Amino acid sequence: QKEVEQNSGPLSVPEGAIASLNCTYSDRGSQSFFWYRQYSGKSPELIMFIYSNGDKEDGRFTAQLNKASQYVSLLIRDSQPSDSATYLCAVLMDSNYQLIWGAGTKLIIKP
Amino acid sequence: DVKVTQSSRYLVKRTGEKVFLECVQDMDHENMFWYRQDPGLGLRLIYFSYDVKMKEKGDIPEGYSVSREKKERFSLILESASTNQTSMYLCASSRRAPISYGYTFGSGTRLTVV
User: Fold this and answer.
1) Which residues 80-109 of A have a C-beta within 8 angstroms of B?
2) Are the C-beta atoms of A109 and A20 separated by less than 8 Å?
3) B contacts of A31 (beta carbons < 8 Å)
4) With an 8 Å Cβ cutoff, is B52 touching chain A?
5) How far is CA A22 from the centre of its chain?
6) What are phi and psi of A8, to 5 degrees?
7) Are A26 and A2 within 8 A, CB to CB?
8) Residue of chain B with shortest Cα separation from A5
9) Looking at the predicted structure, is the pLDDT value of residue A31 above 90?
10) Do the Cβ atoms of A13 and A107 come closer than 8 Å?
11) Count of beta carbons in the 10 Å neighbourhood of residue A53
12) What are the pLDDT digits (tens) for A57-110?
């Protein structure tokens, strides 16, 4: 059973601080990793994709991948109240090109 | 702007009714998926399809069926709705190998069975 694990939270972070979200996965052969943001009552939207070991930056968001340790993380710098949402980690299985989803981490940015 | 469109945002149905949830994508994607999402349970895959007239069971197919007669349309059918099928239903689509684009989701249908 391929698994993706996330801390469900809620993770509470002061406005302006760095929010750090973590995800571990069990399939060592996985190659592609995604972070989705889901606002309450809305559908998930893709915010970051990472394929290679190391960091990938997009504006205030940085995705970090460590394949040896099988974890992927998302950093949000200068956190804003509008960043309050549930963040879903997803891992692409190369065997059938399906995404395996974590249960999500609820992030709360406090003004 | 590419889109996955779900026919209804909110739906209220009675127990025992046959319910159709429709999903249409305009991205010429090969893959389409139906999920349900419940608090604390995350996204659970009901059915998916890799091609027209093709369907595969996901993790929780019981009580559901699907139809994909055209590439752009993927329908979820609740044969006899029950209260435990009250949930948020999300349709998604992707390229055959979504290596860097992942899935695109519709806006969701919140179904209440009374």
Assistant:
1) 88, 90, 92, 97-99, 101-104
2) no
3) 99
4) no
5) 6
6) -70, -20
7) yes
8) B42
9) no
10) yes
11) 10
12) 999 999 999 999 999 999 999 999 999 999 999 999 877 788 999 999 999 999
